[in-house]
Design goal:
The chain is of the alpha+beta class and about 425 residues long. It has 2 domains: about 210 residues, no CATH class; about 140 residues, 2-Layer Sandwich (Alpha-Beta Plaits), CATH 3.30.70. The strands form 2 sheets. It has a 4-stranded antiparallel beta sheet, sandwiched between helices. A two-stranded antiparallel sheet has the order 4-5. Helix 1 packs across helix 3, helix 3 runs parallel beside helix 5 and helix 4 runs parallel beside helix 6. The longest helix has about 80 residues.
């Protein structure tokens, strides 16, 4: 027998739709929360080394001061015990406070020595753990002081002050600060019961300690998130500055170099040549230039195409650069014309180098799409001595005239 199904009422349908929308909204909210927490954890990991370095630096400066203050307390409490006697509950509490200040002073004194001795080893395990150990010592001492003060001055003031000081001075991840503060509150919760026997006072001070821990953790989280935001902003700024410097260097390179061959362009080559001529004049040395022009380069472009012509120009630049000294300068004047500056080189030595370079160019073919393109160059040589003091324009004109003679005499030669 079939089961009878009653139609769903409009109110039930609306309730079902609302429930589904609520579930979807909760799912979206949880997904976004998980993503944000994952991003925060990644950010925390990125800035953790900077936080550890700052904590170590603060420990190195604050530990000696804390040690000195506690030793002053030790002296004051010791004199007080000598003057007023060492008997009774008050004297017992003072002895406990004296011991607490003495241990805290010695701990921070030792911490100051370790921080100073390992100041150049900020990545070692001891230096990374040192600030946390000092903070735990300070919180344990605050618990001891609050507990020992109960017979005379009941209150959690020492613990509250200790929590505020530690959370303001330490850069902690939220998980670390939560664990540390929870541990310190657990110690306070148990220790107060040993010296405070009034239930109302005990509850009040435990609540004060709890509020101090919650407020301290909130402050610690705010300080940490602010620190992370500042560090990430500085990192982005440094990245932007590095990118800007890289682009500026690239722009400077493009303004000084030929885009195809990477050689000096005409304006840069002329500038450097004039500087070299001025130096040669002071030192009394000779200077020579070689003016190179590819033979029948138009035929290469017409036969193989302009990409093949570019490959030939790159090959010429590579051969020329590898054939000269590191002190020589190679530039591209434009088109298929190249120029080489030879400091401290006489005309005879320049001609010898030019002939060597011409022969090497003739033997060096350019491989393009499985074919070998052979190119030759004509070279004009010009030189000036310290006594002649010719400028760049005169040298260039002389080399250009020599190059023209090489072309007229059949190309692939030096003049």
């Amino acid at each position: 027998m079939p089961i009878a199904r009653f139609p769903e009422t409009p109110a039930a349908a609306a309730g079902s739709v609302a429930t589904g929308a609520t579930v979807r909204a909760m799912h979206v909210l949880m997904t976004e929360l998980q993503r944000r927490l994952a991003r925060w954890r990644a950010d925390d990991h990125r800035v953790l080394p900077q936080a550890q370095a700052i904590n170590l630096q603060r420990a190195r400066w604050l530990a000696p001061a804390v040690a000195a203050v506690n030793l002053v307390w030790v002296l004051w409490l010791g004199v007080s015990l000598l003057l007023h006697g060492a008997a009774g509950p008050q004297a017992s509490a003072q002895r406990g406070l004296l011991l607490t200040h003495l241990l805290l002073g010695l701990t921070f004194g030792l911490g100051a020595w370790v921080a100073q001795a390992l100041r150049y080893q900020s990545k070692s395990f001891i230096t990374q753990l040192l600030p946390l150990m000092l903070a735990l010592s300070a919180l344990a001492s605050a618990v001891a002081m609050a507990t020992l003060n109960q017979p005379e001055r009941p209150g959690a003031v020492p613990f509250v002050l200790g929590v505020m000081a530690v959370t303001l001075l330490m850069l902690w991840r939220p998980s670390v600060s939560a664990a540390t503060l929870a541990l310190s509150y657990g110690l306070l919760h148990q220790a107060l019961a040993r010296t405070q026997h009034d239930a109302a006072w005990l509850l009040s001070q435990r609540l004060d300690g709890l509020w101090a821990v919650l407020l301290g953790w909130a402050v610690s989280v705010l300080v940490w998130r602010q620190f992370v935001a500042v560090q990430l902003s500085q990192e982005q700024l440094r990245s932007a500055q590095d990118e800007l410097q890289t682009r500026q260097k690239e722009l400077q390179r493009l303004t000084r170099q030929d885009g195809l061959t990477g050689l000096y362009n005409r304006s840069t080559f002329v500038e450097l040549t004039r500087q070299e001529l001025a130096r040669a004049k002071r030192q009394g040395s000779s200077t020579s230039i070689l003016l190179l022009d590819l033979d029948f380069f138009k035929h290469v472009n017409d036969t193989y195409g302009h990409p093949a012509g570019d490959a030939v120009l790159k090959n010429v630049a590579a051969v020329a650069t590898s054939s000269v000294r590191t002190t020589d300068l190679v530039g591209r004047l434009g088109g298929e014309e190249f120029i080489i500056l030879l400091p401290a080189t006489t005309l005879e030595a320049a001609r010898w180098l030019a002939e060597k370079l011409r022969a090497k160019m003739e033997k060096s073919s350019t491989v393009w799409e499985g074919q070998r393109i052979t190119s030759t160059v004509s070279i004009g040589v010009a030189s000036t001595s310290a006594a002649q003091q010719h400028d760049f324009d005169h040298l260039y004109t002389s080399a250009d005239e020599a190059l023209y003679r090489a072309k007229e005499k059949g190309r692939n030669r030096v003049e």
